[in-house]
């Protein structure tokens, strides 16, 4: 069995505090999102395998590995996600990140055919075999008049809505057969748990969307069956003239789609290893980005 110098376990009761101190230094505000995910019922610790370099009992570098069950080009696969990559500023450019990352790659090569991550700084991952995969948004003009109010905001302080969210995430259909996610909670909760989510009862659909003027931005849809776009628009109580979709809309039955390259929140998707959707136009949903 391979021995790893930096692989740790959250069974160590002191590990979380030391790690999240490092995380907060590197990504201010992320700990609030992590805590939100924990309150919703899926903690960082339950999902992530931490690789950490310590100095004098202080966590100075961390690379986390988690699993994302996905559908890629119609095939179910378990993808490894690299996340929470952090080094304290005073310990940067000393080779510590490279040491930890090399061990993480050795570990992941035993388990996963595919690794993914999203980052605003792809240059840090190119030396480890990651490549940038271009992503796209899908714009559709429409003339929905908005006659029916079929949405309500989910309230996760109630046990009913929280149970609904868990049930639909566990049984969800992928939002796309090109690239979609199934039965995943921790990453979803960190990315979407602090945002407003909507529920359409007669479609049994949770929608991660934003409406800006008369434009509908669709970031993810969680349901056992993805409805077509016209069914979603019919339940919005205001006029919509344009829809921007942040995943491949193969299940939405849309026409006359304008496809444009796009960096979501100024990050790029990077992939290492086998990736069946190479060359396809798609976007990894916001809820699954790590």
From TrEMBL:
<feature type="domain" description="N-acetyltransferase">
    <location>
        <begin position="4"/>
        <end position="145"/>
    </location>
</feature>
<protein>
    <submittedName>
        <fullName>GNAT family N-acetyltransferase</fullName>
    </submittedName>
</protein>
<dbReference type="Pfam" id="PF13527">
    <property type="entry name" value="Acetyltransf_9"/>
</dbReference>
<dbReference type="InterPro" id="IPR016181">
    <property type="entry name" value="Acyl_CoA_acyltransferase"/>
</dbReference>
<dbReference type="InterPro" id="IPR000182">
    <property type="entry name" value="GNAT_dom"/>
</dbReference>
